[in-house]
Amino acid sequence: MNYIVIDLEWNGSWSKKAHGYFNEIIEVGAVKVDEQMRIVDEFRAAIKPVVSKKLSNIVTDLTNITAEELEDGTTFTAMMRQLSRWMGNEPSVVLTWSTTDLLVLMENCRYFYGRQEIPFLKNYMDFQVYAQQQMGVDTSQQLGLARAGEMLGIPEDDMSLHRALDDSKLTAAILQKVYNPDSFRESILMVDDEFYKRITFKTVIIKDIDSPLVKRSEMCFNCPECGQNMKRKGSWRFRSRAFCAEFSCRRCEKKYSGRVQFRLKYEGVETKKKLIEIVPKTEEAPEEAVTVS
């Protein structure tokens, strides 16, 4: 089994064919890592853009890639053939730092092939999530590649960050630091039709309180002090991506601000609740809120 670490750089521009903004890949870098976590081969390709030959200022400032550098580049379809041959026939797992690169690769497949499936992709891992779990970093916030390398003490002196090949090498170095055979194996996803449905599903915040997806049973709060069910004061209001209302506990004579968010994800509806105590005003201090859950 080989592990293929892939990193991409792309240029964003308006495309009439795509009916909107299109992220065109202009550079691909990859390294092949064996089961002993050794880099055994590397791949790099520059791609001559066809949608827009003008690179955005953001791309040139971030990557230092120039239009002249891409003038002799290959085509996207030729690069895909070269990358597939380089990967070989041995079973492999493709790793990217977050799913962003994977989604951009799918976007380019849709544009140039008319379908989003990536021909050589059989097994996949969002390595950013895995690395953060192994490092004990909260996965609700995405950790940047450079920051992860810094936290693990990986030197970057000879690397040009935000260039595809060097970024893939840095990702491989992080892999060497955090790899655990058992947890790694459990994090590998098989790529099938459901995988593509899941990866392209867009999470939706439910705004309609009358939606059948809204669970009314989740819109109640118990007092954190005495455990008694609290009474809602006034109507629910939708603000800051959640339903909000005030609650009061008759026994403790305390007031709270309740917040409930319903998110429709691929797996179903996810509910997030938060309760904040409303501290009464005093002559010395203004009213303030204290988070209790």
How far the N terminus sits from the C terminus, by CA atoms, comes to 45 Å
What is the general shape? elongated
Mean pLDDT: 94
Low-confidence stretches: none
**Main beta sheet strand tally, sense and closure:** 6 strands, mixed
Number of helices: 9
- The level of helicity is 25-40%
Secondary-structure element pattern, one letter each:
EEEHHHEHEHHHHEHEEEEEE
Number of strands: 12
Note the beta-strand portion.
Answer: 25-35%
Radius of gyration: 25 Å
Task: Give the structural class.
Answer: alpha+beta
* Strand arrangement in the largest pleated sheet: 3-2-1-4-5-6
Features:
293 residues, elongated, six-stranded mixed sheet, single chain
Structural summary, described in words:
The chain is an alpha+beta fold and 293 residues long. Helix content is 28%, strand content 32%. The strands form 2 sheets. Strands 3-2-1-4-5-6 form a 6-stranded mixed sheet. Strands 7, 8, 9, 10, 11 and 12 form a 6-stranded antiparallel sheet that branches. Strand 8 and strand 9 form a beta hairpin. Helix 6 (145-151) crosses helix 7 (164-178). The longest helix has 15 residues, at 164-178. The chain is elongated. The protein starts with a strand and ends with a strand. The model has no long low-confidence stretch (mean pLDDT 94).
